[in-house]
Amino acid sequence: MLEDRTVSRVSVFCLVAGSILVCATVSAIGRPQPARASDQASAEIKVAPVETNMHELMEYVFQPTFKRLKPAMAPTQAAEPAWKAIKSDSLILAESSNLLLLHTAPKEPARWNETSAAVRDASSHLYRAARQRDFAASRKAYEQMLTSCNACHKAFAGGRHMLAP
Asked: Phi and psi (nearest 5°) for 65?
């Protein structure tokens, strides 16, 4: 009799579990599934710059962010850097550098893309170093970012707007 109850409990458990599985499957059939990346690509959403004037983009996106970041990256800040500000501004600069890739330079588009990606990569390194609270690595990435910015300014702004650490 004890074995019959055990078998009966196992049977009931299997029946209940099976019923739950069937119900879950049936209810999911009519429900829309989350879109996959390939589905989104086929939606033909176009990425387009809001501001096509590069001076405007630099003046209102990059310049204020750089001006906030510069004092935080001063060597005198090594004792107690403002990590949240450094992380914020470096991430803004890194992601904003992706916006540069939406723009096409009238001359040397390949070089434009290379310098834009170099700024993005250096800003990304700065962000990662700041997340680790490593001021020496942050400072090095910051200087590399400025070198990349200045390479672009030399190539596309006639050497104007050079940045100094």
From this structure: -70, -45
Dihedral sign, Cα of residue 45, residue 47, residue 50, residue 53: negative
Closest residue by Cα to residue 145 from 129, 159, 131, 124: 124
Residue 150 CB neighbours (<10 A): 18
Two tokens, residue 73: 């990256």
- pTM score, two decimals? 0.71
Helix axes 135-156, 109-131, angle to 10 degrees: 160
Closest-CA residue to 65 (of 45, 93, 43): 93
pLDDT (tens digit per residue) in 64-108:
999 999 999 988 765 678 899 999 999 999 999 999 999 988 789
